[in-house]
Each structure stands twice: as structure tokens, then as C-alpha cells.
Write a structure and sequence with these properties.
six-stranded mixed sheet, four-stranded antiparallel sheet, single chain, alpha/beta, 8 helices, 10 strands
Length: 229
Amino acid sequence: MIELRDVVRSYPGEPPIHALDGVSLRIDRGELLAIIGPSGSGKSTLLNVMGTLDRPTDGSLLIDGVDTRSLSERRLCALRANHLGFVFQSFHLIESARVIENVANGLIYQGVARNERLRRAARALEQVGLGDRTTTKPSKLSGGQRQRVAIARALVSEPSLILADEPTGNLDSGTSDEVLNLLTDLNREHGATIAIITHDEDVANRLPRRVQVLDGKIVGTTTTEQVAR
């Protein structure tokens, strides 16, 4: 579904700073995995490259078989809108808008008509267990509910891949468990392909596959079965 081949992301300096240094990674459709590393390891840069928010200095990124190196900014934006969904630690909800509008806004860049946006947003909210909160404002929701809205917004466009950046970072342990259970259910029951970027070992250890990033390199990949052994 998505593949990085020898990706380098450098920034000017003497010598240049390699935030990513020859990263190769493949994520197949239907996978659920953690990308884990400490602060400064390169995992946020990796998220930005995978999400087409930043272009590699060298190497290539393929999404659904499309090599993004040759794409114009306009075509790259279209690919991002149609194939990628994002969940952020800080939710990024519009406080003045109803929950259903926050979710429906995820379809604006696809040119979907308003009535269809709202219909699909209502369905996404049902998927995350908030079908009865469509007219609520975000300020009336708990932290866990706000993150569920953010997940629904990522789901509404039916993306090829959901990139979740520290989705439990602002939540207490009980609410974190609820959000992780939701993401796991979405993967298992709906086939959503999800990569969770995290520094939390407990979060990473609950997922079927774990990719360890350090100093801009992938230094290890393990599965739940390997950890159990």
C-alpha cells in the first residue's frame, strides 16, 4: 500500500543533518503497526514524508503503486486528500462547529457535495461510537470523545492509510486504552490500514507490528508473535 525505498531527508548544515538516513519500509493493506522511537529519532520526519507533507531529499515514496517523486504539488495534494487520513495528538477540532461538521470537513478537498459529506460523516461517527453526538460542540466532549471525532474525520474519506501521530499523548491511561481499542477494532473489523507513531512502549507493544526508529534509521522490526517468544 505504501513503500519507502532508501529515503533520505536532509536539512542544510555543515555537515548536512540527516533526519532520515536510508529508510526502507513497506506497509501492506490492512496492517496495524507502531512506529516507535524517542524524541529526535526521526519518527516525526518519517510521518511527514509518509503523509506527503514533506518530500524526500533522496529515495522514493510509493502510495498505491504511484511514485510520488514526479507528482506536482497539485497532484500530491489530491493524492493526500484521497488516500491518507491523519489523527493528531492535539485533535485540531473547530470549536465553533458541530461534531458532524468537523468530520464532514475532511471531505471538502475531495469536492464532495455538502449533503453527501454530512451523510458520510454521520456514518463515520457511528463507526467510532459517537452516532448520538453529531450536533454536539467539541467543548462539550471529553478528551477521549474528542479523539474519536478526530479518528472519524480521518476515516470519512475512506483513506488507504491512516497516520496517527501520538493519538494517546494527551489522554489518561484509561482513555488511552479506549482509543487504542477503537483503532484496533477499526483495523480488525473494517480493514483500516493504520500506522501509529509513538514514543510509548506500552502502546507499541499492543500492536501486531513494531518498527523501531533511531537516529534517522530503522533499527529493528518485530511482530507480536516474536515478542511473545
